Amino acid sequence: MSTTAKDKARRIWRIVKRVFIFLFLFQLFYILLLRWVDPPFTLTQLGSLFTGYGLKRDYVDMKDISPYARLSFIAAEDQLFPDHNGFDWKSINKAMEYNKRKPNRVKGASTISQQVAKNVFLWQGRSWFRKALEVYFTFMIELVWGKNRIMEMYLNVSEMGPGVFGIEAAAQKYFKKPAKKLTRQESAMIASCMPNPKKYTVKPMSRYVANRYPWVIKQMAYLQNDPDIQQILQ
Predict the structure, then answer these.
(1) Which residues contact 209 (CB under 8 A, 6 or more apart)?
(2) Percent of the chain beyond pLDDT 70?
(3) How far apart are CA 116 and CA 184, in angstroms?
């Protein structure tokens, strides 16, 4: 390689290295900032807007979210949420075994923390690269944010219907009331749509939601007196 080519390669490497350092420091700053500030947008929200589903959202503080809503999503999506470090390894192993047996049917095992990492920082998809980034961001928000902030973010950024993001927008759309006044049954209905909120609709109520929300209500009754869960509900 000539001297000129070597110099050009060094310059390119320096630029790449600086860009990498900048991106690394920026994402650290952004993670820390979101400990107190809500994200201006997410890639999933932008995708919904640009693909014609629209974008309805209204971020609210945890104090403005019904305890029933918090409990219903724990019951429906991640009953070990207060206790794990971001990953439910037992469920992950079960999902991996299921996917090996039935490769045409993909079963997930994402915790609430993993869903927040994906929804806030990443894009929808199942590539190994995206999953690796999800692991990193899940670890970081567990370390920096803590459980209550993760739950608050989850209830604000998750899609809960076609183009409907967050529990406040969902409460207003489906029940014409603020999230703070959601009942146990209403909360369970919204939480029941989460595997696929575009397909499993709350209103008109899909068969899946109709069958699932009574089960969610029963799980809420089992979990509501757990001391660790009570800390998130207060």
Answers:
(1) 189, 192, 193, 200, 201, 202
(2) 89
(3) 23
Q: Considering only CA atoms, which of 179, 145, 139 is closest in space to residue 160?
A: 179
pTM of the model: 0.86
Contact 182, 172 (CB under 8 A): no
For the beta carbon of residue 129, count every other beta carbon within 10 angstroms. Answer: 9
> What dihedral angle (degrees, nearest 10) is formed by the CA atoms of 60, 62, 65, 70?
130
pLDDT single digits (tens) 185-222 = 999 999 999 989 999 999 999 999 999 999 999 999 99
Task: Please give the C-alpha separations between residue 33 and each of 30, 135, 141, 144, 231, in angstroms, as whole numbers.
Answer: 5, 19, 11, 10, 24
- Residue 92: pLDDT band with limits 50, 70, 90: low
- Assigned fold of 37-228: Penicillin binding protein transpeptidase fold (1.10.3810)
CB contact at 8 A, 67 and 233 = yes
How many CB atoms neighbour CB 77 within 10 A? Answer: 18
Where do the structural domains in the chain lie, given as residue ranges? 37-228
Residue 92, C-beta contacts closer than 8 angstroms, at least 6 positions apart = 109
Say which DSSP state 44 is in: H
**Contact present, 73 and 191 (Cβ < 8 Å):** yes
